[in-house]
Hints:
By secondary structure, this protein is mainly β. It has 2 domains: 40-146 and 300-309, Immunoglobulins (Immunoglobulin-like); 148-296, Immunoglobulin-like (Sandwich), CATH 2.60.40. The protein has 2 helices and 17 strands. The chain has helices spanning 2-19, 218-223, and strands at 40-44, 52-54, 58-67, 79-83, 90-91, 98-99, 115-124, 135-157, 176-177, 185-195, 198-207, 212-214, 238-246, 249-250, 263-265, 270-278, 286-309. Residues 1-30 have low confidence and may be disordered.
Amino acid sequence: MKKSVWFLLALLLLGACAGGVARKGEKPQPQTYRSGTEGLRITFATNLPPFILYDTEPFSTLIEIENRGTYDVGGPGDKIYISGFDPTLIQGISTYGEQIPPIEGRGPFVSQGGFDTVNFRGTIRSLYDKKIDKYKATILATACYTYETVASANVCIDPNPFAPTTKAKVCIPASVGLGSQGAPIAVTNVEVEPAPGRTRFVINVHNSGSGDVFRFSPQSLEHCSPYGLGLGYEEVDYVQVADVTISDVSIRPSCKPLDATGHIRLVNGVGKLYCEYTQPRGQSPYTTPLNVILKYGYRQAVSRPIEIRPVA
């Protein structure tokens, strides 16, 4: 009896293990990967820099970068900066920042995004010579990069929504919740407002991440630097609407409100986009994908306190 029980348990364990492994000759299956509200995650490596340093030691810090979203980074202008210290005491750190290396995002067959590091090295001036007992500072690491959100929702198109024969329809237009798309800017839901011959969409856009969003442009990416001019009022909280499509037909020209460069402004992290689709006459109700592509710059920062002590 005991042998039979152990045999059954062994079979169950083997079946559980085999469930996560593709069988020989079996093609890998795509995964649902567009979820989550992060782009890049940046952290200071353990003890780099240490909380206490001496002025006879070199200054070194290592920033760990993990792509938690679905868009590849490392393009021109994607950089990491460190700041927050007196450049006369810690020298040799470039104000131009360091290029973020190419890091892949998650994909249909890739469950985790890429990982890499960026190192900063400098020298510490003698505090004893300057008659400084100790120097405290907060080291700030800032990531400035471009990112993209791709949102897709199945919506109901009804050319004659007020017809009384609702039971004969395959769908009824209704709002669709999307949640998140593996990026800090999310299309959280789409409101569907049907009318005879046309359908209006209210697309709700949220900054669901922990950083700041700004215009999708090389100039704004440069202004993101803590050593630059800084992001202006007309740069922060803007998202470019790259495209909005229904059944492979772009309805972006109908979308409002967009500025001259196709950007929508977020107020308190929230924005609304109004688009309209005119459907051909004579069609019955049907469901079809609504796709939204958003492009933007994003800024995140983390900090670490340090204390430098002199060596007499």
